[in-house]
Amino acid sequence: MSSTKYIFVTGGVTSSLGKGIIAASLAKLLQSQNFKVTIQKFDPYINVDPGTLNPYEHGECYVTDDGAETDLDLGHYERFLNVNTSQANNVTTGLIYQSVIEKERKGEFLGKTVQVIPHITNEIKDRMQLLSDSGDYDIIITEIGGTVGDIESLPYIESVRQMIWDLGKENTLAIHLTLIPFLSASGELKTKPTQHSVKKLMESGISADIIVCRTEHELSEDLREKLALFCNVKREAVIQSIDVDTIYDVPLKMREEGLDTQVLQRLKLKPKQNHDLKPWNAFLKRVRNPKNFIKIGLVGKYVELQDSYKSILESLIHAGAENETEIYVESLHSEYLESKNLKEKLENLDGLIVAPGFGERGIEGKIMAISYARLNNLPFLGICLGMQMAVIEYARNKVGLKNANSTEMVSNCKYPVIDLMESQKSITKKGGTMRLGSWDCNLIANTKSAIAYQKIHINERHRHRYEFNNKFSDQIFDQDFIISGINPETGLVEIIEYNNHPWFVGVQFHPEYKSTVLDPHPLFKAFVKASLEKKLKA
Asked: Known catalytic residue: 384?
């Protein structure tokens, strides 16, 4: 009999209902009762990972310590639980089929006809149970991407059915997240979409144990009883998930609804301790009761879709709470920043972040924004490409290298201050080949970065192909523009700072990937603090 319990979270009616947030919230509640919990995401798209996907298609690509390019939901898992995920926590259809085909080529199926059932479903089940092999977890929550009824999701739904059959109802639990729409014309909440969704799930051989209903309005007792009757669940297993001000309220709402209580009862588990949510509640208290307000500009080229910079936005919330400050983020499309509108767009900001990205679109807008921040003492944080653009800006406008650029933008530029990493020059395949995962960095004592971190040896997560070209170190860096962080093995410039400035820092890595509710990232905390100080001095 399995010692690990499995919870499967599926969705119906529509996408983007928040399965990841519900899964993370449930995990938080179970963790607060001293259960060892992890979450994994199974995505039905055929891409091997989201690394080659346009952010407009799928939101940001989240990177783990071990270098996995994963779904943005893994960011939610880490931010809620304050624990690291890994390659094993995110699996795609592309990865599943790739693995099965490789086994077939090696002859591992002994001449059998390779089919969706059992070969694909067996591979899925193996991956679902991979994390339990370590013996580190009491409960594993598995989120199935997409919605019930999608062609792409069918093998995953079938695998869940088999898992429930194989492991038994006492070791498995199915949660189905659906939408209860409100029709303004009739002034009514409608249950039919949920009924049809649950029926579709039943047709696949899975009977939901708990139904979580996304809604904009309170569910009446009559409506809950109706859902329980038609969907074949107990009344107390109909859970309301109503819109809230912040995603960090969801765990408390789920506790009020008794989601974790229902889960433990059905898995025949007893709480190991009373809920310990004091740090979480303290964080929420600071979020709800800010003493100050600042406006931060976020310059990027994917700003139309907030999920493109999800981890940055959440990191600002964490840092804002730490500084007891509410943060309004002004999204600024770098393509539309020009000399004639630059002052108008930036003069009312308290701080500026130039976001990561790829390609030449919107580059000049980013450089102009950085120049404004440097010359006007506007607190600045440049991330990955943002750091590279800060180098180019200084090289052009202060050092006098007028044609300085990155070879990513202009392959034969006169002054390639940013260049393709040596290890990348022989690589032709784009997927999974960047400099990824956690790398060491040594900080220079008494710099803004070292003061923020309160230590000089750190490691941070990366996702890039281009780096500062060390051939230009002597030309570009001086007593004002300095290197404050460097990789000890490769000599890669990791952090730059402008000294003659209240707070101007650019980093090659992605600090947003390591910020959590209980451990806000030091650089974001320092950046928000500097932005607040600017505001208070004004």
From this structure: yes
